[in-house]
Amino acid sequence: ILCILILGVFIYMRSKDHIRTLGLSGFVPAGLTGIVLGILSSFLGIGGGPFNVAIIMFLFSFDIKTATMCSIITILFAQISKLFSVTLTVGLQVFDLSMLPYMLAVGLDQLHRSPQ
Q: Is the dihedral of CA 33, 5, 17, 20 positive or negative?
């Protein structure tokens, strides 16, 4: 399935100028797309970035920057739900979280330095 998705993204991105997008809008299509992309990325064990961007561009006629932002938000919510799921079932004690404070500090520093 992963190979088929990668091939589909490759073909779409190479020929996106010749493919007519759907131009969907509204809460229901956006919500359903987010749920499907979240399930797909969780099922395949991937972040889903390239797949999300290609599908969002096709379904909603977004430019690549807007689709990337939407993809990041979709991944954020998928990972938050995964974090809650792991916390409630296995627990966080099975993970080495010693680097987490440093990673958070660097992430926040980069966020602070990024141009608005």
A: negative
Q: What is the pLDDT of residues 49-80, one digit of tens each?
A: 888 999 999 999 999 999 999 888 888 887 88
Cα angle 38-15-62, degrees, rounded to a multiple of 5:
50
Q: How far is CA 91 from the centre of its chain?
A: 24
pTM equals 0.73
Q: How far is CA 67 from the centre of its chain?
A: 10
Show the tokens assigned to 68. 């990337």
CA–CA separation, 50 and 10 (whole Å): 9
- What is the predicted pLDDT for the residue at 116? 59
The amino acid occupying position 84 is F
Q: Which of 6, 96, 94 is nearest to 55 (CA)?
A: 6
Q: CA end-to-end span of the chain, whole Å? A: 38
